[in-house]
Design a protein that fits this description.
This protein is of the alpha+beta class. The chain folds into 2 domains: 59 residues, Orthogonal Bundle (Arc Repressor Mutant, subunit A), CATH 1.10.10.10; 152 residues, Beta-Lactamase (2-Layer Sandwich). It is built from 8 helices and 8 strands, in the order αααββααβββαβββαα. It has a 6-stranded antiparallel β-sheet. Helix 1 crosses helix 2, helix 1 packs across helix 3 and helix 2 crosses helix 3. The longest helix is centred in the C-terminal third of the chain and has 21 residues. It is elongated and about 60 Å long. The two termini are 38 Å apart. The C terminus is likely disordered.
Length: 234
């Protein structure tokens, strides 16, 4: 059976929604229209629908920004995904040794972080951070770019640190990163940590294939993240 043709209206809706979210500031409809290259009248109808659903809202200048229900959707998707439960225990072991650890995905020319915890931070509280960073400056971005290596390490002398990155699986659009400061006991040799991050990525991939979709809310770490779980969209 041939695959169903994608619904262009839904695709345009997601494109507009993503553009508002990634802007990081209130943004007008004409600017959105230019960015997504969709006719302004069509963009206006999409924006009106997204405001009606609560995914977006308007400020006093009639510019658009994320609405309250986009946060509900984000919380529910984090709760339903197997990625965070599959990754958290693996990166916790590395993080406990004094490393910055991150989990991210590539979107356009940016890496969007799903986990990002410095050595002094609580890794559980970094789940779902959704910060973004230029892909060409991120080891995760470099392994996820087209024809990128499966794993990589690079020195950052201006920051006095070294970073390692690895893709999770062969086709998945997600990767992990480890960053250590100069002088850290695991800083040298870099090849040894490269092996460790490759093994960590493989473990996460295997976890995704074999673990049940255990909700993060049933884990003690989720209780710290979400002490008042959302039970409905109402």
């Amino acid at each position: 059976m041939a695959p169903a043709q994608p619904n262009q209206s839904i695709l345009r809706g997601f494109l507009v929604l993503q553009e508002v979210i990634v802007a990081g500031r209130p943004i007008g409809s004409r600017e959105i229209s230019r960015l997504v290259k969709i006719e302004h009248s069509t963009v206006n109808r999409i924006l009106g629908t997204l405001v009606e659903t609560g995914m977006l809202q308007q400020n006093f200048e009639s510019k658009y920004l994320p609405g309250p229900r986009i946060h509900v959707l984000s919380a529910l998707s984090l709760n339903a995904s197997r990625l965070i439960p599959a990754t958290l225990p693996v990166l916790e072991k590395i993080h406990s040794q004094g490393a910055l650890v991150a989990l991210g995905t590539l979107w356009r020319d940016m890496v969007v972080y799903l986990l990002h915890a410095r050595a002094e931070q609580d890794i559980a509280h970094s789940a779902g951070v959704h910060e973004h960073y230029p892909a060409n400056k991120s080891v995760i971005g470099k392994v996820l770019m087209a024809n990128g290596p499966k794993s990589i390490w690079e020195d950052r002398p201006e920051l006095q640190e070294r970073a390692w990155g690895a893709r999770i699986g062969e086709k998945e659009n997600v990767g992990i990163a480890i960053v250590l400061p100069q002088g850290h006991p695991l800083y040298d040799p870099p090849e040894l940590m490269l092996v460790q991050i490759e093994q960590a990525a493989e473990t996460i991939y295997n976890n995704l294939q074999h673990i049940g979709a255990e909700p993060l809310r049933e884990d003690a770490r989720w209780q710290r993240l979400n002490p008042h779980p959302i039970t409905s969209l109402a």
